[in-house]
Design a protein that fits this description.
- With about 280 residues, this protein is α+β, with helices and mostly antiparallel strands.
- It has one domain.
- It contains three helices and nine strands.
- A hairpin with a 3-residue loop joins strand 2 and strand 3.
Length: about 280
């Protein structure tokens, strides 16, 4: 009799343990938001800015290339050689102060920006990652001043920028960043996304503090970048960006970029080879 009662109690306890285990494991490795479009649009292709300079860049966004220079969609059948890399001056000396649409920094991070401004105005490259051939980082790299290539599959979208040969991947298979990834931030960060209808919704975390929000605005290790990408017309891709950082920003910063898909033969990117320019200027 007692053995029968013990058997029943053990069965009940084991049943409860089994039913609890999946929920517990799911909480530790929770999948991202589910896709709502089984047949999303295909972003694959090479794109160039259709409105160069659009978006808020404190101290100036990367200058739009002149006609015939690197990054300008070439005329049919032509592909001019880009000018040689140069290191003659910081990419923006910030002498004109902050742009009206620059990120609104907290006092502590505004003080950091002043240090960066004074350094660049002196001609130093200490706070100029681009002059030192470092990746532009997110979200600045999405200005894509020299064009970008998008490679899309069911589970992943890869963005390759000619500017600094910068690379980022957006995972669409429901994965989430592990603690190991969060503890090892990168310039591009770690991006996960899902489809909401025809819009790609992306969240990027684990971003290095050495990068900037725009051309010069510093951020903390708590910065998160959210994007909504969609076609607004055939071949016209829009990326609406919102940056959140409770330590560095007084409110979220918003900007957007618009790109036009290139046709053959202008759908090719060139090697940037930034390191070649390191020997053309002061050390």
């Amino acid at each position: 009799m007692h053995r029968g009662l013990e058997s029943i109690l053990c069965s009940v306890a084991l049943s409860g343990l089994i039913s609890f285990a999946p929920a517990s494991l799911g909480a530790q490795g929770a999948a991202g938001p589910a896709n709502t479009n089984a047949n999303p649009p295909d972003f694959t292709g090479v794109y160039f800015p259709s409105q160069p300079g659009r978006g808020g860049a404190g101290g100036g966004a990367p200058a739009a290339p002149a006609a015939g220079q690197r990054g300008t969609p070439p005329a049919a059948g032509q592909r001019s050689a880009p000018p040689p890399p140069t290191r003659s001056a910081p990419t923006g000396d910030l002498s004109n102060g902050r742009a009206e649409n620059a990120p609104l920094l907290t006092p502590a991070y505004m003080a950091r920006w002043e240090i960066i401004r004074k350094s660049r105005m002196s001609g130093s490259y200490e706070y100029d990652p681009i002059a030192n051939c470092l990746p532009p980082g997110m979200p600045q790299m999405m200005s894509m001043a020299y064009g970008m290539e998008i490679m899309q599959s069911k589970d992943k979208i890869t963005f390759f920028s000619e500017w600094q040969d910068a690379l980022r991947r957006v995972y669409l298979d429901g994965r989430t960043p592990t603690q190991k990834i969060l503890n090892d931030p990168t310039y591009a960060g770690y991006s996960t996304g899902h489809w909401e209808g025809d819009t790609l919704v992306v969240e990027t975390v684990a971003l290095r503090e050495e990068s900037f929000i725009d051309n010069s605005s510093p951020h903390s290790d708590q910065m998160t970048v959210k994007e909504r990408m969609r076609f607004t017309a055939p071949g016209i891709l829009e990326d609406r960006i919102t940056v959140y950082d409770p330590k560095a920003l007084t409110k979220p910063w918003e900007t957007s970029h618009t790109y036009k898909k290139a046709d053959r033969p202008g759908d090719e990117l060139r090697e940037f080879a930034c390191a070649e320019g390191l020997g053309h200027g002061p050390k």
